[in-house]
Amino acid sequence: MNKSILVLGTRGIPNVPGGVESHCQSLYPLLVEKYALDIMVTARKPYVPYTESVYEGVKLKALPTMTNKSLEAPLHSFLAAFYAIKEGVDIVHVHAIGSGLVIPLLRLFGKKVVFTHHSQNYDHQKWGKVAKFILRLGEKWAMKYSSEVIVISDFMQNLMNEKYGRNDTHLIFNGVNPPQLPAPSKINDYLSKYDLKPRDYIIAVGRFSQEKGLDVLLEAYKLSGIKKKLVLVGDSDHVTEYSYRLKNTAREMDNVILTGFLSGEELHSIFSQADIFVLPSFSEGLPIALLEAMSFSLPAIVSDIPANKAVHLDEKCYFPCGDSQKLAALLTMTVDQPLVCYAEYLKKYDWQLIAQQTHDVFLALDNG
């Protein structure tokens, strides 16, 4: 396959926080390495230090956008779409429904479009009525006009068939890389930075926005009376009333540690040594943070939303979404439990397999 591919719908790579960003950072270097594809990922200038660069064989191009939570993704997507048209690329791979608005334009100019549906973002509490309307429209146009559609969970596959009659979607899961940890001495250095000890803290990893439910976790932690520390890894892209309130509440509590966004060795070191991983989200696609926790064998407690249930953990790992009392009880029951072997679960979340399946979708464009 000797065609040029442009990617839009991500803030950028490498090491830009976010589920779509982690997905792209893992996937595209593998596609370049295994299949010698010509791939360019478009990034949003506020989030990356380059205008043009290369990451593990993937070309990178930063385009401007507004740092406004409602306009940022659509504006950047239109700029990236016009760039794709100007550069004459063959295939555009679009990520996330906020970017789905540009797909009719790309098809009008003869581009073949692969769309990956990561999450029903319109379920997120942070969006107002207009933003939710735009996101729903992006999903509708993506389903109607994309040449090929990838979904990341069986739940999403069934939903797209029910809502739009799109019964030809490709089910390709998110992935997780095998753990790569630094030397024990370096891990201890990272832990010492936050005054942490191995298996002596609970961890949650995610953006500080309402749909992640971290306020529910703080309430549950307070109710539980657990003496182990609670570590919140993440922050918000834009200061909001919710993120401001969440951080203030956390700072007023004993034994709650805010690390900010972490990446690379530091993230893996802090992540891997926790006692419990908690994901209290109200909305997810297929959460990479949960897959990473599983790769570190951490006992997991997750909300019972469909996207989390689709991972098919043991029933005892789930609590009713938004119920801080039930979460508190589950935290108390789960502390000091042994590590868990998730080897069988993780087989289908292998990036080598995911790269092969994605390449097959690109090949299907030639046969379509």
Automatic annotation (TrEMBL):
The record places domain Glycosyl transferase family at: 198-333
| Highest taxon in the source lineage | Bacteria
Question: GO molecular function, one example?
Answer: glycosyltransferase activity
Ranges for domain Glycosyltransferase subfamily 4-like N-terminal come to 17-178
What Pfam families is this protein classified in? Glyco_transf_4 (PF13439), Glycos_transf_1 (PF00534)
**Which CDD domains does the entry link to?**
GT4_PimA-like
What are the record keywords, sorted?
A: Glycosyltransferase, Transferase
Give its E.C. classification number.
2.4.-.-
**Gene3D superfamilies from the UniProt entry:** Glycogen Phosphorylase B (3.40.50.2000)
* Alphabetical list of PANTHER family matching this protein: BLL6006 PROTEIN, GLYCOSYLTRANSFERASE WBBK-RELATED
| The protein, known as | Glycosyltransferase family 4 protein
